[in-house]
Amino acid sequence: MLNEQVVALVIEALDDGKAKNILDIDVRGKTSVTDFMVIASGTSARHVKGLANAVLVKAKEQGCKPLGSEGLDNGEWALIDLGDVVVHIMQEEVREFYDLEKLWQGAEQSRIEQGTVQRD
């Protein structure tokens, strides 16, 4: 399964579960850990857990075996490692505090402004 297909599968599972503010970020060239990150918010610990489980089930159904998962017990921040796609599902307060969007998108914007990255 292509990375873009995995991202679409994850987004579909999150959207079906009523996740809030779903965002996918292409991090190729920024890190060697993964190619894409998908970030979404849940409204409660129960919602975060449910969203994470939905992503795991949908991925497994499509033959995409998760390499690991973290945070499913407490429900503040769940991380699902699908290899080249890493999924972060957080309660809104946790997401605001860690601000992964700024971390990953901000680094790219900074390099664009400095002229070290060419835009398409």
Automatic annotation (TrEMBL):
Its main location: cytoplasm. Coiled coil: none annotated. The keyword Membrane does not apply. InterPro entries: Iojap/RsfS/C7orf30, NT_sf. Gene3D superfamilies: Beta Polymerase, domain 2. It is found in: Cytoplasm. Keywords: Cytoplasm, Repressor, Translation regulation. Interacts with ribosomal protein uL14 (rplN). Functions as a ribosomal silencing factor. Interacts with ribosomal protein uL14 (rplN), blocking formation of intersubunit bridge B8. Prevents association of the 30S and 50S ribosomal subunits and the formation of functional ribosomes, thus repressing translation. Belongs to the Iojap/RsfS family. This is Ribosomal silencing factor RsfS. It comes from Thiopseudomonas acetoxidans. The gene is rsfS.
